[in-house]
Amino acid sequence: MTSKQRAYLRSMANTMETILYIGKDGIIPGTIKQASDALEAREIIKCAVQQGCPLSAREALNQMCEELQAEPVQCIGRRFVMYRPSKDDPRIVLE
User: Fold this and answer.
1) pLDDT of 65-86, one tens digit each?
2) Tens digits of per-residue pLDDT, 3-43?
3) N or C: which end of the chain has fewer CB within 10 A?
């Protein structure tokens, strides 16, 4: 992914609501399933790591991207953004 493509995705993520929270249990299979379903439906999602989570946002982002074959877009503070094109109906076009 080029820096221009990443910048485009970051601009899209600015107005998005956080839809996935990682809590004190860290990343569990249910979290992976929920993130995978959300990525298939939306292609880009914003997540947050809560106060008691054993992982930092960067660690959570790297682990989730590895398991979901997603691209990391941005990580600021406790929030991070991931992108994965939909297999069935890709809607976001990266030039």
Assistant:
1) 999 999 999 999 999 999 999 8
2) 999 999 999 999 999 999 999 999 999 999 999 999 999 99
3) C
From the list 34, 23, 20, the residue with the least C-alpha distance to 67 is: 34
> From the CA atom positions of the chain, what is the Rg in Å?
13
Total-model pTM: 0.90
Q: Where are the alpha helices (DSSP H) in 43-90?
A: 57-68
- Record the tokens describing residue 92, joined without a space: 């976001």
Q: Which domains does the chain have, with CATH numbers?
A: 3-83 (3.30.110.60)
C-alpha–C-alpha distance, residues 4 and 31, integer Å: 29
Q: Strand 44-49 and strand 20-22: pairing?
A: parallel
